[in-house]
Amino acid sequence: MHEELMKGAITIDDGEVTVNDEAGIASKQMDSLVGEAVFGDQDGKDNARWLIWEIGQKVGVIPSSIHDLYLARGRGEISGYTVPAINVRGMAYDTARALFRTATKLDAGAFICEIARSEIAYTDQRPGEFVAVIIAAALREGWRGPLFIQGDHFQVSIKKFAVDPATEVDAVKQLAREAVAAGFYNIDIDTSTLVDLSKPNLVEQQRLNYEQAADIAVYVRGLQPQGINISLGGEIGEVGTENSTVEELRTYMDNFNSTLATRGPGLEGLSKISVQSGTTHGGTVLPDGTIADVKIDFETLRNLSEVARKEYGLAGAVQHGASTLPDADFNHFPKTETAEIHLATNFQTMLYDRMPDALRREIYEWLLINAKDERKPSDTDDQFFYKTRKKALGPFKKRFWDLDKSVKEELASAYDAKFEFLFTQLGISNTVADVAKHIKPVRQHRTQPHEGMIVLAAAPDDADLSD
Length: 467
Hints:
By secondary structure, the chain is an alpha/beta fold. The protein folds into three domains: 1-59, no CATH class; 62-346 and 406-441, Aldolase class I (TIM Barrel, Alpha-Beta Barrel); 356-402, no CATH class. It is 48% helix and 12% strand. It has 19 helices and eleven strands. The chain has helices at 22-25, 28-39, 42-59, 67-74, 92-106, 117-122, 127-140, 158-163, 165-182, 202-221, 246-263, 298-312, 332-335, 345-354, 357-370, 381-388, 397-401, 405-425, 432-438, and strands at residues 10-13, 16-19, 61-64, 83-87, 112-116, 145-155, 186-190, 231-235, 272-275, 317-319, 340-343. The strands form two sheets. An eight-stranded parallel beta barrel has the order 4-5-6-7-8-9-10-11, surrounded by seven helices. α10 packs across α11 and α11 packs parallel to α12 (298-312). The longest helix has 21 residues, at 405-425. It is globular, with a radius of gyration of 22 Å.
């Protein structure tokens, strides 16, 4: 029976899970269960993911929308912190465990776990797997609360859109359908790739952006489980391009809102808006593999956030591509009332810096063959490997999962320190109370997919990092 897998911590009766011992679910048995959710055969994955979901529902680790918290910020009821959205790419379970350890230590509730459309592909983490891993990590660390899981950059490709607009937009919609079904109740709609600065005025420059975003928003609203308003974000400028302006924000929001009112009367709109203020995804890589210094325009963020809140009731502006910024910059985001920042690449760098040299060499040899088409003639080896090594996260996922205990312990310590620094600088310590006040989680029971036992290998002795 299923309950045997958790050593008496749970019982299952006709598809109903009862948790008898919450300490028991925060054990090595969870390591085995989540391993099955990621690497088992299809029946094993389905059952393990179902069980993780149901345990979370029972004890209060419940995927939720951050929408109402953000609207409260738009009304001026809360302020003074910036919500970090962490892209959980490599070693997802271990990374997320560190995230929840830190959240518990600092009493932080206002944070997001996310994955982008592109990352879903190259990390080999479909939405169902991602949700299971994040919930399992929270359970393993004894964390409780609304869990904000986000689809980052559900982006329309300009190249594919130019060839076949309907098919490309439909691909984003179908990904949203898969994600919402899995438990993603926060989605960033990114049609900023369609902005055309060659057009004669702001309305025409932004037209495809706001029209397609509104179309996708209507579709996503139609996927919502009962009682949940998915948090939707829009984007007015593609990251890495020219800095956004107040005029662009107003043009996008006015026309998005009017288009949404026409296509989906009565539907909720956006809760935040992503802007460009001087960063690039992953940073600008120098020939020696280091990252060029970035000067972020905090005044742009301040002005755009203020307009977003006061004129449109949004939480404020969202900053992408922030993880490679200098440490001294992070405390400026709460001061400018930036609503949210996205952090990804630096955690990947920490993983590559600490992995065994032999594994790193093997990965780089793999990249020379499998990512050779992405190499520019001017790229040094350091630049090429830095820019492409994210593509190895999926093919080498099991190897990362099975890293030696000593490597994992070193990474865990480094991640704990980095998350504590970021959470402190961004001001999200003691935000559990704000989340509890404004977010009312909606419990959702799911039907057991396959009756019978999940066969799990015993967790290895070195699987435990925190006990």
